[in-house]
Design goal:
Blueprint lengths: L1 H15 L19 E5 L3 E5 L3 H9 L11
Antiparallel strand pairs: 1-2
């Protein structure tokens, strides 16, 4: 159950600073190079670069230029 898993991970993190619980999927440390994450859903699994393609589009988009003219 998702709620039980979240409670166990967060309780472990709050008490010891490390969310990993013996017998559960290990919550990996985040690294910029591979952007590792833990996905908690119907199954609990690790992955890398969540939505990387969509975020790359945002990174490449030019930010609007604010001129201060109120437009």
């Amino acid at each position: 159950e998702i709620a039980t898993a979240m409670i166990r991970y967060w309780t472990q993190f709050a008490t010891g600073g490390d969310p990993n619980v013996e017998g559960m999927v290990s919550w990996p440390k985040f690294h910029l190079g591979d952007e590792t994450y833990l996905e908690i859903g119907d199954t609990i699994e690790t992955g890398t670069q969540l939505r990387a393609r969509q975020l790359d589009v945002l990174d490449q988009a030019e930010a609007p230029v604010f001129t201060g003219s109120g437009q």
